User: What shape does this take?
Amino acid sequence: MSTKCEGCDCRSFRRGGLIADVCGKCHHWNWQHGEKISLQDSIAKGVDGREVGMARVDAAADEGWKARADTALKEVCETRGEFTTDRVWSVMGYALDEDEKEVTPTAMGPVMRRGQSKGWCAPSGRTKPSDRSTNHRRQITVWKSLIVNGPQSHSPCPTCGGTGKVNT
Assistant: This one.
């Protein structure tokens, strides 16, 4: 249901008992409790919430499990050009149909973030359905290794030998 707000060009949307208003002029959101927040601030709050959530999950995970996960991620990065977290779970010894009993599956997010900050891997920008039955075929990130076969992830150019300069 959509209704017009008084005093501005907002439209109210009611979904499942929740009310959200968005102004057509300034793109501010009006939440049910009356707070006005810009769309940009709303996105920032979502990003902040993600970071806080990842920090909490990482802090709660067992240090031994995190060390095993980091080791498994590095091993996968050194041997695969592209991979998903399914492969990391597998290297850690979890079967595709096995649930993670030691830790919440969301603990893999901070592991991947650490691998990214160490220069081991980066998101490829693609996703694929997970092969793990516990994920119910949901889309997961395809990662690309930055250290496969050592620090150089591609063969040197036969023309320049990897220097960028043409040998004459």
The chain has four helices and eight strands.
